[in-house]
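Figure 2 data, in text form.
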Amino acid sequence: MLLVPVWSGCGSSGAGTGDEVTFTSPDTWNIDAGGISPCNAQDMCPPEKPFCDLDTNQCVQCFDNANCSTGLICVQGVCACNPGSMHCQGNQAWVCQADGRGFDKEICAGDCQGGVCVACSPGQLTCSNGNVALCDANGNLGQVVDICTDGCVDGVCTTCFPSDARCVEDNVEICAADGSGYVFDRDCSDEPGGQVCIQGQCLDPCSGDFKFFSNVGCEYWGVDLDQADADSHGSPFAFVVSNVGKELPAHVTVLRAGVPIDEVDIGPEQLHIFELAPYNVDGSMQGTRSYQIKSDRPIIAYQFNPLENVMVYSNDASLLLPLNSLGTQYRVLGWPDLGSWHGYVTIVATRDNTEVSVKVTSMTLGGAGVPALAPGDVHTTTMQAFEVLNIETNGRGQDLSGTTITASERVAVFSGHEASYVPKESPCSGGVCSFNPTETCESDIDCIGPCCADHLEEQLIPEAAWGTTYIAARSKPRKFEGDVWRIIASEDGTTVNLSPSLAVVPMLNAGEVFDIDTDSSFVINADKPILVGQFLQGQNAPNPYYGGVCNSEGTAMLCTPSGRWCDGPPWCLPGEECVESVVTACNISGTPCLIDQHCSDVFESTDAGIGDPAFIMSVPVQQLRDDYIFLVPNKYLEDYLILYAKVGTSVSLDGQSLDNQGWTTIADGWQYLHLAVADGVHRLTGTNTFGAVVHGYDQYVSYGYPAGMNISTLVSPNP
């Protein structure tokens, strides 16, 4: 048989380019036939040379071009190409290999021209950085001809990216193929078991393999944290739980030491208060002291310590995080020891045989099952589910901030304080405290801040969820008080900048903190992960004014017979009266006091006049959401939202637009809004991600927590 090379005029067109590739004469090609395989019948040839040439009794790859793959021609029984030749195959650039037996192929990110990848086709409208750009004569992205606000697809501005999915309540909506907008896809509540829409998918969030990390979940762990005041310790501790679904009830159970103690069905978008007998942690200790909350439908949960605020002058609240959002590595953001009242970190085991190691940054108190520790000491222990490890500071100014926690299983970690002033201190000048000359001092730490001290608590997010940008939107002003913002670094050599530049933040090493006391709002940017806490100031902030020496007589309203200060019947116990009584008083202010006790801070007209310290965990911008379901408690006189969003983001509360509510500019394109809000369950939605904080005031009490957050892994924490 005579083999005739078929090559003249044979080519492979570059699809979409109009190029025609013509091979040179095969006589000039250096083609390796790949060895000799003798044969005298077709079935004697191997797969790589499937044809028998009966004229030469040799196996060959081909008889003609039809036997060869795309881009190759039949040359003397070999499927081959011209070594080094280039052509386009669709949006791929093909270059013939040196042995002529095949091609090196490159998939072009843009287009292919003459066998070379280019960004685009000359004259073509394409997308560049989300905008429409015109391709120049050399196939490079050129001039931007249209700025797109919501994205670009195939050279056209779009409102969404094709096939992207989103949730509108429990409905899944899919972006149309042309990017023109979202269209209804399905209702998750119609799925088997009544699922919910999360990140554009119908999911059962209570399944064991659920991987979405936010404050919405089905299993939570809480604890009645240490308080300074006996009345607070004895007051009802409470979980407040809300069903976030719109269709089905949630069956919720509260367990203590593994035993159910209360359970209830909560209707769609309804809430339930679990009021519980005191089960408080007291001092450094390890023991069974926590609660588990389990639900068969997605819920949000909070703990109030205590729930009531009448006759209880020390309380706060925490947004609880579900099991799937907990971590195994934490770094503490705390508040310094006040001397008689201590800061602490509380670790809750969620599974048996959990190995926990704590490396502390301060002097700590010993207690039941817990040794006293010094800075740098490591305490390692094994914990069982429902056990709590509580470690408290020992000595004025001692601070657990920077303390690291590692665990073999997911644990819940709370940072708190029995009771503290915010600001924590007032200036020391000339050996005496500026606002109380009867108090001697060596430094500011010896001078207490404005009245009054209050319980602080917040659940911490894992270190892997820390971010680099935070919006410090101030609390609803009461008078002239501000907020204290506390920044802690995760890594050495962390640079932090503020916008506007209210203060110069020194370079921070891992575990170091920096405080900013201001009545302004600002943006915090760091080059490495940080965590930020917002601390509300006391009712008598901003200026402590002390009322002299306790050596005079005065009058005060007291509950009879308990002797508790009151301002009317609601402040007294049942059966008591609020009556005017003669008391020992400060010689300047006339306010009640105890003999030999320094007179306390007294109220001035410029002071806040309501509320007290509270600890609010700030949410990294990277963890913000575009929808929140949140709770406003019914126990406080005033409740507010702090909202912050990028300019151009439209935010709605319970379906009502907040666009025209008078937002205030912060910096870097961010703005904030204070909004009074009614008690109960609410929903916030936005056209982009935004932040929301719930907080409230009453007489010498406050509370605060973020309305919600994502808790995605953003960084790998340091070992």
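Caption note: The longest strand covers residues 680-698.
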